[in-house]
Amino acid sequence: MPVGGAEGERSSVGDRIDELVADQVVLVVGSITDPAGVTRGKYVPVRRLRDFQRSGMGVSPSWSVFCVDTGIAFTPAIGVAGDLRIRIDPAEARLIGDGIAWAPGSLGDQQGAPAALCTRSLLARAEAAAAERGLTVRVGGELECTMLAADGSPASTEPWSPYGIRTSLDRSAFLVDLATTAERAGLAVEQIHTEYGHDQLEVSLAPDTPVATADAVILARIVLGRAAARHGLRISFSPVPFEGAAGNGAHLHLSLADAEGPLFSGGRGPHGIRPDGGSAIAGVIDTLPDLIGVYAGSAVSPLRLKPGNWAGASACWGLENREAAVRFIAATPGSPHGANAELKLVDPSANPYLATAAFLSSALRGIDRELDLPDEIPVDPSTVAATPPPLPTAQVEAVDALENSAVAADLLGPEMVEALVAVRRHEIRTFGDLSPAEITQALRLAWSC
Known about the structure:
This protein is α+β, with helices and mostly antiparallel strands. It has 13 helices and 15 strands. 35% of the residues lie in helices and 20% in strands. The strands form 2 sheets. Strands 7, 8, 9, 10, 11, 12, 13, 14 and 15 form a 9-stranded mixed beta sheet that branches. Strands 1, 2, 3, 4, 5 and 6 form a 6-stranded mixed beta sheet that branches. A hairpin with a 2-residue loop joins strand 11 (252-258) and strand 12.
C-alpha cells in the first residue's frame, strides 16, 4: 500500500535525515537574506530537521530591518513585538562541509503564510506572475568577489595579472577546493576565473528558475567563504572593498520564452529581438531610476557605479556593451544558453532575491505596457551626443527615488520598500560622513558569508 499524506511526509523527511547523517552532517542551517543584503541563519541538530520544516525557527520581525552593522532600523510597522518563523524544505538541504548542511529559508508568520518582508516569497510571486502570462523564465547569476588575507588586508601584494594564468595558478589549491565543495553541494558552477581587479575572482552559475538562482547565489557565497577559510583567506562581497580598487558586480542574466520560443531571438527586431522581448528590455530600463536603490543602494555602491568602470552606470542597452546598464547577449554559437539580457549595475550589497524580483517584474511591466525598445547605444554612452540621463547613483538620491516611487511600491510592495529605505537611511546616518577609505574599510566584510 503506497504511503501518503502526513505519514509519507514523515517518511520522506526521515529518509533525508538518514542521508544527511550518513554524510556526517551534525547541524542544519536555514538562512534568509534581509533587505540590507546580509544573510542570517539559525541552526538545529540534524534530527530536528522535521521541526525546521513544520514549525520553523522563531525570529523577531526586526530581522527584516537589521542593518549592515549592528543597528536596527525600526519602522512604524516593525518594532519589538511579534514573532516570525524561518521554514525550510528538507529536500533542499545542501552539504557545505564541516558537518553542516544549508537550506534556503522562507520567512512566514506563525500560521505558515509568507511574511510581507520575505524576499524569497516575493521572488516566487514574480516567477508565478510570469508563468501566468505563459512565460518561461531563466536567470543566471555571476558573483564577483575579492580574496582577502585572514586579517582583512589584501590577499597578495605582488603585481596582478588580470585573468592571468599565474594569478590563478597561485591559488590553484583554493580553486580546486572551491570546485570540489561546489560539486558536493550540488552547485552548478559553469566558470571560475581571476578577474580584472587585484585579488578579484568571478564565479558564474548555470541559469535556472528565478528562485533557484537566487538560492544558488547565496549557496555560492557560503561555499566561497568556507573554501577560502580553509586556505587562510577571506572573501569580500563589498561593491568596492578598497578605495580605488575595482568594483565587484553581481550581474543577473534574464531570458524569457513563450509558446512560440525565446523572446530575445528569432524575431525581426535588432539582433533578433521579438516585440515582447523589446518591451521587456524597455521595462527594465524604464524603471532603473526608481529601482537603483534595490540594485545598488548601499553606502559603498556609489564608489563602483561610475562611468568607465564597466558597471553599467548608464540607463541604456547595447549588444555586448559593458558600459550599458543592460548588456544584450545575442543568440550565437558563442552563447550556449541563447540570447539574454544582462543587468550589469547590480552589486553584491543587493539582496539577490529582491534584485531578481525587481529585474523580472520590471521586464513583465514593460511587456504588459507594450513599451517600445529604446534605440540601442552600441558604443561607450559617454561618447554619444544624446547621452542617456544620469541615474541617481548617490545613496541619498537613490534612496529618495526608491521611497517616492509608485512603481517600486507596485512591483515590490510598500512594506518591502519601507524596510529597504529604513536600512539604507541608517547607512546614510552612520556612514554618510565617512571618507571612501573609511567606508570601504568599515563595510569590507558586511556581505560576506
